[in-house]
Amino acid sequence: MEEQIYTLAFKEGLWAVLFVTLFVYQLRESRRLQDVAKEREDRLTALINDITKQLETLATKYERMSYDLQEIRVCLLKEESRK
Predict the structure, then answer these.
(1) Which UniProt keyword terms apply here (predicted)?
(2) Among 5, 36, 40, 74, whose CB has the most other CB atoms within 10 angstroms?
(3) What is the mean pLDDT, run by run of 10 residues, along the chain of 83 residues?
């Protein structure tokens, strides 16, 4: 198909050929940039998902530590009340 477009452009003159060449280049470059952006988006999404999992793990550990600390406080208060 490109060949047919270039053939028609050659019939129209140098400026038509230059325009078609630039237009085809722009389309290819745009497609390449979209692919690069998609790859970057996929990597960032994976990073965000990984960070989310790590934060969930930290939140769980924090809750456990908080619960353990409460238990320790209760035990200490019971020991103090016995004295």
Answers:
(1) Membrane, Transmembrane, Transmembrane helix
(2) 5
(3) 86 92 96 98 98 97 95 90 77
How far is the C-alpha of 49 from the C-alpha of 63, rounded, in Å?
Answer: 21
From 35, 5, 1, 30, select the one nearest 17 (Cα to Cα).
5
pTM, to two decimals: 0.60
Cα distances from 30 to residues 27, 38, 73, 76, in angstroms, run 5, 12, 63, 68
Closest CA to 19 of 29, 36, 32, 5: 5
**How far is the C-alpha of 4 from the C-alpha of 20, rounded, in Å?**
11
> What are the CA-CA distances from residue 58 to residues 16, 37, 69 (Å)?
62, 31, 16
Cα 54 to the center of its chain, rounded Å: 16
